[in-house]
Design brief:
This protein is of the alpha/beta class and about 325 residues long. The chain is built from twelve helices and 17 strands. The chain is globular.
Length: about 325
Amino acid sequence: MKAIEFTHHGTPHRVCRCVDVEDVGYPEPGEIIVTVDASAINPADLLIIEGRYPGPSQLPARVGIEGTGRVEATGSGVIGLATGDRVLILDRANWAEKVRIEASQAIKIPDDLDVLQAAMMKANPPTALLMLDEFVDLRSGDWIIQNAANSAVGYHVIRLARTRGVHTINVVRRETLFEPLSAAGADLVVLEGDDLGERVRANIGNVRVPLALDAAGGRSCLALADCLSDGGTVVNYGFLSGEPCMITPHHTILHDIRLQGFWLVRQLFQGPRVKIESVYADIARLISEGTIQAPVDATYGLEEVARALKHAERERRSGKIVFTPNQ
């Protein structure tokens, strides 16, 4: 059986290898075997491999936060899952041909769900959904602002906000992204910069902007805070800049702006099972209806790991990179 491992932290395409490993064997009681159909490369995967995000405590280790596949076998005592079922894999070692996991680490999903979208539904859609739901009481007509707007989370935020009558301000690093984001439903797309607040307000006026979603930290976080209305909240959910989040006493004291963190592990996976299942049922429905969809730039086999990771490391991509281990 083939799987991807890394033996030490470093540049992902240099330290990861596709290796032959022992077959997963037979499921123990309470376990299932899943044949992995597709597994996306998430930014957090790259950070784990670089040693900049919580990950395996011992190396060598396998990785792959997201994945989907079909149940190949079930152990005794497994209820609610059967051979042939399509599942979302919640475990974090999915860059492999097969995985053996606790049945609790799988969520049954619709059989006809697009396999590539299913491979990307674990992390980014619930991140977008919960950030819109759980920090600010958004009202129809409100505006929100986000950086890294061309990311999968960014696309989901645009589409989910639109269904609620909420307008989006989308901050990007290059003008070539204006057209695709506008086509996806973005109300305003702007280039990042220290004068972001002035340029945004020149476009939208004195409307209510209660929420900012920050994937980067550093000065980008600071620029988002400049755009918020009094009492607004910056939610930081990413490490992209590698720099500390920045807001000033001017923001916190004079304008009552708050900075909060979002981690899906805490916000969803440490909660009750019923919430996890409900969130993913909603996401499956949104994907099936076409409300949310993340673009895919390319797919690769496991043996092409270096090419795939090098592609994923590029700044200029038009979508996600996805492993298809068994094609």
